[in-house]
Write a structure and sequence with these properties.
Layout: H1 4-21, E1 41-43, H2 45-53, H3 57-68, E2 74-80, E3 84-89, H4 91-100, E4 113-117, H5 129-147, E5 151-155, H6 163-175, H7 180-192, H8 197-214, H9 219-235, H10 239-261, E6 268-269, H11 272-277, H12 280-290, E7 295-296, E8 306-308, H13 316-319, E9 334-337, H14 345-356, E10 365-372, E11 375-381, E12 396-402, H15 406-418, H16 422-426, E13 428-433, E14 436-438, H17 440-445, H18 452-455, E15 460-461, H19 472-490, H20 496-516, E16 524-526, H21 528-531, H22 539-556, H23 560-569, H24 580-593, H25 596-605, H26 610-629, H27 638-661
Helix pairs in contact: 2-3, 4-23, 6-8, 6-9, 6-10, 7-10, 9-10, 12-14, 14-15, 19-20, 22-26, 22-27, 23-27, 24-26, 24-27, 25-26, 26-27
The chain binds one RNA strand of 77 nucleotides through helix 2, helix 14, helix 15, helix 22 and helix 26.
Length: 670
RNA sequence: GCGCCCGUAGCUCAGCUGGAUAGAGCGAUUGCCUCCGGAGCAAUAGGCCGGGAGUUCGAAUCUCUCCGGGCGCACCA
């Protein structure tokens, strides 16, 4: 993962500190100096030592440097500022290391089994831009984990028996008057006309939400229909459940198609219907009750419910039995089983997560559901097929869920901990992110009625219930159209098929980059002008840098690999080419290109893909700058030309790989 | 009321475990095609990093507090 030189410097620093000052630092801090003039690495260790040794940091730095020199691969060391130890690499040697791809060496397979859950859209309407952020973040993180050698299963949880699906069933059967056969015909008709079912449901869902509220005197009656329908779905074996199955399955297929346009695939689609029918909850309840995580409330407003104390709600362990607490019932406790005996969402989620960690004691049935060229996405069923892969039983899980759900997520972790699965609880990560909202301007542009109050806000929350938002496929369509227009005008001579493929790669690159460039806890105030931009800090900008590099190799008739290999067989004869003003510029590009693995590691440690997006942009920027200052093909000095070509090659390699981890293709032309 | 997130240039956002002159994109102004394609490059203007206090050799970054904005806290999912 790192350059040999860096490892060597760290080891030597550690040895010096131990021998000379008798301190054993946990980690040797190595930073990247703000300016190349300070060298390639800088260590602030002298500052820490200064306090402990009551000695001036500069003095310590000098002493350390005296012991550092000489060090293989390094040219010199010096004290700078208040006591930094700055290290300068032997650039020509380091160049060889980078050209060989030393720091890119594939990491060893960790063997651990990681599970990432993302997307998880209610299968009752079209996916919107908020879902896109979720799926793109999740998919990118999966790519990062796999790049780091993890074995990852991707799951997309399908809540096919929840209120949202129930609402659509109510809309079809009560509002529209369809029966089961009628719904089947409707689905077939829409498909025959090439209409998107999820779009049809988008409008229907907004209408039924309105219907519940519209007539005051009928409100209770309509809510009653909804509740009854929900129970019918949970029980199964009736027409309402059959309609739900029909619609949710068809909408799910649409969601998978939408995501496939963005290169997003899943391994397993666990459904809530199986969690119910296979009675996952019964097993979870046994464990929860036996371990005293749940208790039956006998007093107060939660009387008759099985509840769980909330995390951080005082001393749950101490009293042992919170119900007998002299202070009275814990009214703030989380209800897991209602007084009517039904299980809440959190309860089902606890059972599901016990399965994820392989400690439930029961498995799903599996059946193939959706084909991706050479592989299959499996779905849960009650009985399943005999021959199937096994999912679940993960060592670590990541749940990509927006930050609004952090409370229920915390409840699940608390339950795991209460059951004694502290290892599992410690490897449960809520991969949280903020929502995508619309700017008031964007809402008006789309023709929505915006209240005066909303107009004053920085952004307005998207709402599927109100039908307020930008549908994922609409955005993708618009982006492809915009890219297509550009490609058509730039490459009229290319075949329509090729132009279309390039336009798609650019559009997807722009969309994925747009969703990834914001850090997770920043709310995205969506605006078409920004999303549709292909200039500046965008995916196409990075793609374009790759295209430029490739154009050079095409014209030169050289392969990038050969340009790099040339530095391995014959090291740079004139190290001076890497020094001076021009040399610094070139060397800076190499250094940035070599940081890819470091960035990958950082992205995983902080569950933040945005760092990689930023990094690829910065590298592309450095390269574009380099491209304008150094004209490669007309370079007369052969040794210098060899260096310039290799520079383009190392950038091309690094960018293509980084983009691949982001799920962004690098076109041959654009 | 309690919890979580945010407040950095006109706008949208970066700023890694506190560290060397606070960065980028967009927008504005001005340049750059005898050149590997300009989806590009260069330059200029623009910031008491929301206010205050504290910790530290050193704070945009950590702690407290106040102000402003967002989102959660249901026998909904």
């Amino acid at each position: 993962m790192y350059l040999e030189q860096q490892k060597r410097l760290e080891a030597r620093l550690r040895a010096i500190l131990e021998r000379k000052y008798d301190v054993v630092p946990e980690k040797i801090a190595l930073e990247q100096p703000p300016n190349l003039a300070f060298g390639e690495f800088a260590s602030p260790v002298a500052f820490d030592l200064a306090r402990r040794l009551k000695k001036a940091p500069r003095k310590i730095a000098e002493e350390v440097i005296a012991e550092l020199t000489p060090l293989e691969g390094f040219q010199s060391f010096e004290v700078a500022g208040a006591g930094y130890i700055n290290a300068k690499l032997n650039r020509a040697t380091a160049l060889g290391s980078i050209a060989r791809g030393e720091e890119l060496a594939a990491p060893a397979e960790t063997g651990s089994h990681v599970l990432v859950e993302h997307t998880s859209i209610n299968p009752n309407k079209a996916a919107h831009i908020g879902h896109l952020r979720n799926a793109i973040l999740g998919d990118t993180f999966v790519r990062l984990l796999r790049a780091a050698g993890e074995r990852v299963d991707v799951q997309n949880y399908i809540d096919n028996t929840g209120v949202q699906v129930a609402d659509i069933v109510v809309a079809l059967m009560h509002l529209e008057g369809y029966d089961l056969a009628g719904v089947a015909r409707l689905v077939a008709d829409l498909a025959a006309r090439g209409e998107r079912l999820d779009y049809f449901c988008w409008n229907l869902y907004a209408r039924v939400s309105e219907w519940y509220e519209s007539a005051a005197e009928l409100k209770d009656e309509r809510k009653e229909i909804r509740l009854r329908t929900l129970h019918e779905l949970e029980q199964g074996g009736n027409d309402a459940a059959a309609v739900a199955e029909l619609i949710s399955t068809a909408v799910l297929r649409r969601h998978l198609e939408t995501m496939e346009r963005l290169g997003i695939e899943y391994d397993f689609l666990p459904r809530e219907s199986e969690i119910l029918h296979l009675k996952f909850w019964d097993l979870a309840f046994e464990q929860l009750r036996a371990k005293g995580v749940l208790y039956l409330e006998t007093e107060g407003k939660n009387r008759g419910c099985w509840v769980m104390p909330r995390a951080g709600a005082g001393r749950p362990d101490e009293a042992g039995d919170a119900a007998s607490d002299p202070a009275g019932p814990d009214e703030d406790a989380k209800i897991i089983v209602r007084s009517n005996g039904t299980v809440t969402y959190v309860g089902k989620d606890i059972a599901y997560h016990l399965w994820k960690f392989g400690v439930l004691g029961r498995d799903f049935g599996y059946a193939p559901f959706y084909r991706y060229g050479d592989r299959e996405a499996w779905i849960s069923t009650e009985h399943g097929v005999a021959d199937h892969p096994h999912f679940g039983g993960a060592a670590a899980i990541y749940n990509v869920i927006d930050s609004r759900q952090s409370d229920p997520q915390a409840n699940v972790v608390e339950a795991l901990r209460g059951l004694g699965f502290s290892e599992a609880a410690a490897h449960y990560t809520h991969f949280s992110y903020e929502m995508v909202a619309l700017t008031p301007r964007c809402a008006l542009e789309l023709g929505y009625a915006v209240t005066e109050e909303d107009r004053q806000r920085p952004y307005i929350e998207v709402s599927g219930r109100k039908g307020f938002g930008v549908k994922a496929d609409d955005l993708i369509d618009r982006m492809i159209a915009a890219a297509q227009e550009e490609v058509d005008s730039r490459h009229p001579a290319r075949s329509p098929q090729e132009r279309e493929r390039i336009a798609q790669e650019i559009a997807i690159g722009a969309l994925r980059y747009f969703m990834l460039k914001y850090t997770r806890n920043s709310v995205i105030a969506f605006d078409f002008a920004e999303a549709l931009s292909f200039e500046g800090e965008t995916g196409p900008y990075v793609q374009y840098a790759v295209v430029r590099a490739r154009n050079i190799f095409r014209k030169a008739g050289v392969e990038p690999e050969a340009a790099l290999a040339s530095l391995e067989t014959a090291p740079l004869a004139e190290p001076a080419l890497l020094h001076g003003e021009q040399g610094d510029e070139i060397w800076e590009v190499w250094l940035a290109a070599s940081k890819l693995s470091l960035v990958l590691e950082q992205c995983i440690a902080t569950t933040e893909p945005a760092y990689l997006a930023k990094h690829t942009f910065q590298l592309a920027q450095l390269f574009n700058n380099f491209y304008h200052r150094h004209h490669i093909l007309t370079e007369q000095d052969p040794e210098r030309k060899r260096l310039l070509l290799a520079t383009a090659a190392v950038v091309e390699r690094s960018l293509v790989r980084g983009l691949d981890w982001l799920g962004i293709a690098a076109p041959e032309r654009m």
